Amino acid sequence: GGADLDCEVLVLGGGPGGYSAAFRAADLGLKVVLVERYASLGGVCLNVGCIPSKALLHVAAVMDEVAHMADLGVDFGAPTVNIDKLRGHKEKVIGKLTGGLAQMAKMRKVTVVRGYGSFLGPNHLQVEETSGSAQDKTGSTKTIHFKRAIIAAGSSAVRLPFLPDDERIVDSTGALALKAVPKKMLIIGGGIIGLEMGTVYSTLGARLDVVEMMDGLMQGADRDLVKVWQKMNAKRFDNIYLKTKTVGATATPEGIKVQFEGLDGSKSEGVYDLVLQAVGRTPNGKKIAAEKAGVAVTERGFINVDVQMRTSAPHIFAIGDLVGQPMLAHKAVHEAHVAAEVIAGELKGDAKLASAAFNARVIPSVAYTDPEVAWVGLTEDQAKAEGRQVEKGLFPWAASGRAIANGRDEGFTKLLFDAETHRIVGGGIVGTHAGDMIGEIALAIEMGADAVDIGKTIHPHPTLGESIGMAAEVAHGSCTDVP
Ligand code: FAD
């Protein structure tokens, strides 16, 4: 049938996956339409995720640092917080970045269509147009015909079904809205997102409780890294409930009354001014009528893809949070480039581009807490669980001149090497700026570096990054047959 718009590549969703795919496809000379339901591009990451959380975490880190300055001989006194101004700062940061994306889309002649997209068939998407700042449908629709499509519809926060509807119960988006600072806050879910938001609110004055079903916070990271974080952050928490489920909640005028049940059967209760649900994210795969395009969606709403990001329909690709863990922006961006290149290769008959594939060995994770916790590749706990032999090089920051000069020597840097090949297979850092340093370890893993390569690389002194070279030198001693 007739279509209002015709393109070579249709991209559904304007988050880090979607805009990166659209831009790469346009740069490779393809005619691209990008469909996004919200007024601004950038998806979860720029609007209600990575970026606003880091804008607030930066302020919190400076406040904590300044408070600590009194011990070093400079007392700034107690801070006064203007929460409206702080919120305004965060909004400005978002606006700068999303505005930049709109400009970049224009420069590349990517057609951005505002509305809610769902598939009509293998080569057609229907868009119900939306307006305003929300996703309110205007009633008018557009049909887009495409040769190839890239689905980048992302994910949404999981909601616990038994929690009452109350404005004092929020997800990460509600927490980032920063309406007020509660006296007592509960974080349900001790993962990165919950702990980052908890860091912001507690620095601004809230007392925290956290409840987690597993036996430790920040699952996925090695326990030795988390231990350092936990020791430094103990003062923020009244209660850390581990191996505990949230089983019920009622809204009362005094606060949200929440019931907990330990896996051992023990029961407890608390009353909170703010409850943050941070129990994970669920893919948006079931909300786009993918089946009409012949794209298989799993029970949980994920879309399975091959290494070229191709779905069960060979002309349709999927990327980002929608295709599986880890749900991280940098993963989405790299997958986006693969999908765009494969499509450009096929449509333009370029065999090299058409053979693009996602073959990253590792994807780093970072908790932008204070201190930061960052890890990449094999973890020590994983190696133990799998019975893999590894050599470890650990450098404590108590021996780092820069960390001591900064008054922040609680951290450490750890590298793991395969016991047979001596090549680096993983690493973890806990300490200030850990997230900015983990990329070097990822590079070393991608390059197949061994401890000598890293240890003999001259790092500038005195820096925190030096600790990576030092950790390699520690391991080097155990790598006897490395030339
Ligand atoms: P999304 O960003 O979810 O984008 C999908 C887009 O598609 C959205 O804009 C949505 O409106 C649109 N859309 C969906 N369905 C339709 C439809 N039918 N029609 C039209 N449009 C549609 N990751 C990091 O790497 N680092 C971090 O520090 C980090 N911090 C985070 C903090 C928080 C609080 C949260 C919630 C997430 C954080 N993440 C972080 C995760 C990161 O935001 C996601 O991994 C990333 O946004 C995924 O990108 P995406 O393109 O797959 O999807």
TrEMBL record:
Quote the cofactor binding remark. Binds 1 FAD per subunit.
MF (Gene Ontology): dihydrolipoyl dehydrogenase (NADH) activity; flavin adenine dinucleotide binding
Chemical reaction(s) catalysed: N(6)-[(R)-dihydrolipoyl]-L-lysyl-[protein] + NAD(+) = N(6)-[(R)-lipoyl]-L-lysyl-[protein] + NADH + H(+)
Q: Which residues bind NAD(+)?
A: G189, G190, G191, I192, I193, G194, L195, E196, E212, G280
Q: Its Enzyme Commission number? A: 1.8.1.4
Q: Which residues form the active site?
A: H461 (proton acceptor)
Keywords, A to Z, come to: Disulfide bond, FAD, Flavoprotein, Lipoyl, NAD, Nucleotide-binding, Oxidoreductase, Redox-active center
- EC category name: oxidoreductase
Q: Which positions does UniProt annotate for FAD binding?
A: K54, G117, D321, M327, L328, A329, H330
Belongs to which family? Belongs to the class-I pyridine nucleotide-disulfide oxidoreductase family.
Q: What else is known?
A: The active site is a redox-active disulfide bond.
What is the name attached to this protein's record? Dihydrolipoyl dehydrogenase
Recorded source organism is Inhella inkyongensis
Shown part of the complete sequence: 116 to 598 of 602
